[in-house]
Amino acid sequence: MTIKDSQVILLGAGGAARAIITAMVKEKAGKITIVNRTMENAIKLAEFAKKIGGNVDIVSLQKANKIIADYKFIINSTSIGMKNEPSALSTENIGKDTIVYDIVYQPINTDLVKKSKENGATIIYGYEMLLSQAARAFEIWHKIEPPYDVMKKALLGGF
User: Which of 19, 114, 116, 151 could be stapled to 100 by a disulfide with Cβ–Cβ 3.0 to 4.6 Å?
Assistant: First the structure.
C-alpha cells in the first residue's frame, strides 16, 4: 500500500479530512482530489494542503464519480454511512486495484465498504483509526506500550 505518487480521492473537508490530508502530504501522495458538498470548506482545506506542500484539486461529486477509476485510494472522511445510507460516491468503477478507507466505524460495513468489497477492492475499516487513536491515548496516559491486540479484540467484540 504505497501512498507515494498515488492519486487519492478524499470525500469530506472537516477535521478528520485535515488530518488525513496532512498524512497524505507527508507520505508524498502524487495528487489529492477533494470532494465536498460545501465548496467553501473544500477550498479552505485545499489551501491548507497547498501550504504544506500538497498537490491538490477540488472536484464536484458528479465529476468524482466519472474519474474515480483513475484513483488508487478512495477515502470517506464524512459521516455518510453511519445511518446505513447509500455511499455518496459511485462504487461501480472501484476495482481490485483500489484501496478504500471509510473512517465510519459503526457500522463496520458501510454501503461504500460493502460495494467496494464486492468489486474486489482492498478495504481499510473505520475502526482502525478509532483504535489507533485509543492506542496512542493509552500510551500517552500510561507511558507504556498499549496492548493493541487486546484493544482490537475488545473493540470488535463490542460491535
Answer: 116
